[in-house]
Amino acid sequence: MPIIVVPDDEPPVLAGTVEEERLGQLGEVRIYNSRALNEETLLSRIADANIVYNIRSTSIFSRNVMRNCPRLKLIAIYGVGYDNVDVLAAFELGITVTNTPGYSAVAVGEMSLSLMLAVAHKIAQNDHNIRASGWARQYSSQLYGKTLGVIGTGSVGQRMIELGKAIGMKVIAWTLHPSPERATEYGVEFVTLEELMRQSDVVSIHVLGVPQTDKLIGEHELALMKPTAMLINTARGSVVDEPALVEALQNGMIAGAGLDVFANEPLPLDHPLRSTENVVLSPHTASMVPEATLVGLAMAVDNVANFLQGHPTNVVNPTPQG
After folding, report:
1. Are the beta carbons of 244 and 272 closer than 8 angstroms?
2. CATH number of the 3-103+289-308 domain
3. Which end of the chain is more exposed for a tag (fewer CB within 10 A), N or C?
4. Burial class (CB in 10 A: 0-12, 13-18, 19+), 269
5. Among residues 56, 159, 236, 242, which one is catalytic?
6. Facing residues of 4 across strands?
7. Please, are residues 27 and 4 in contact by the beta-carbon 8 Å criterion?
8. Where are the domains of the chain?
9. What is the DSSP letter of 74?
10. Are 170 and 145 in contact (CB under 8 A)?
């Protein structure tokens, strides 16, 4: 039987579930209940694996790691993002990489909406003031009738388009691959990135953390935003130039931000975002709901089963056969 290693089930989401049982029917399963935070630890866990069932993005599958795993044939990622895997190196080494697209679209969409409302209505700031025996009263922002700019129109972006319309916002969007057909299907107008940044009262980010989107939102793009506008990011921290965002928030160039993701996670204790008042922070938990977790775990096990049967599903890199 193939050796299937789960190098990083912490906090545990797979252990003790029916999906762990299903995985055990496909091979010999080894689960580690701590994160593999460095290359040496990860290699010690997966060196003789045929299949890796990866849960946490803190496990980094570099070319060197994969090159030192001669039996490895599949990395099955639980999650949408695969920026922790060098997919080109995986292809060259004959390793297939799969993910679980769309499994958490509803949950992440709801978190994005929650952050948007929390920032607009200053919920976190008012909560803090009340707990500190204060009773500060200040204007918040009404979102009805305002413009929501959605960056990325995959499954989460499409859900955000629906939610924005549901609360009465005008929605525009940007994607790497616009087309009249997609615009009609999603019921949204595609605009350039610069137009979106200028027009939007809220910018919500929903793209993968891939080389094409690295620091997609930088100093130039932030400078285009209205001083009353807000930025929401539930995608990947790498998409936003974090120092530029901190400067924009602290200097009043934009009104606020809601962030579930960061360039370095966990967020360092001395990070300036921790002391910036006009930002709502969340510890990368947008998809952490039981409903999404069960769907994602099952999809990843399905990907393992289908690979072993010779017809891999949800492949994110070319297979060795092309």
Report:
1. no
2. 3.40.50.720
3. C
4. exposed
5. 236
6. 29, 51
7. yes
8. 3-103+289-308, 105-281
9. E
10. yes
Instruction: State how beta strands 202-205 and 279-281 pair.
Output: unpaired
Range 105-281: architecture per CATH: 3-Layer(aba) Sandwich (3.40)
Q: Are 236 and 263 within 8 A, CB to CB? A: no
| Element containing residue 232 per DSSP (H, E) | strand 230-233
Q: Catalytic: 189?
A: no
Q: Can you give the pLDDT at residue 27?
A: 98
Contact 173, 153 (CB under 8 A): yes
- 39: nearest Cα among 9, 66, 73, 70: 66
Q: Is there a catalytic annotation at residue 271?
A: no
Mean pLDDT of 62-88: 96
> What's the pLDDT tens digit per position in 133-191?
989 888 999 999 999 999 999 999 999 999 999 999 999 999 999 999 999 999 999 99
Exactly one of 28, 185, 189, 265 is catalytic; name it: 265
Q: Is 265 tagged catalytic? A: yes
Element (H, E) at 204: strand 202-205
Query: Is 143 in contact with 121 (CB distance < 8 Å)?
Result: no
For 311, the token pair is 């017809």
Largest CA distance in the chain: 65
Supply 186's token pair.
């999603």
Q: What H or E segment, with its residue span, contains residue 51?
A: strand 51-54
The whole-number pLDDT of residue 191 equals 98
Q: Tell me the per-residue pLDDT of 10-59, one tens digit each, with 9 for 90 and over.
A: 999 999 999 999 999 999 999 999 999 899 999 999 999 999 999 999 99
Query: Phi-psi bin for 215: left (phi > 0), alpha (psi -120 to 50), beta?
Result: left
φ/ψ (deg, to 5) at 10: -150, 120
The pTM (predicted TM-score) of the whole model is 0.90
The letter for the amino acid at 280 is: V
pLDDT given at position 138: 87
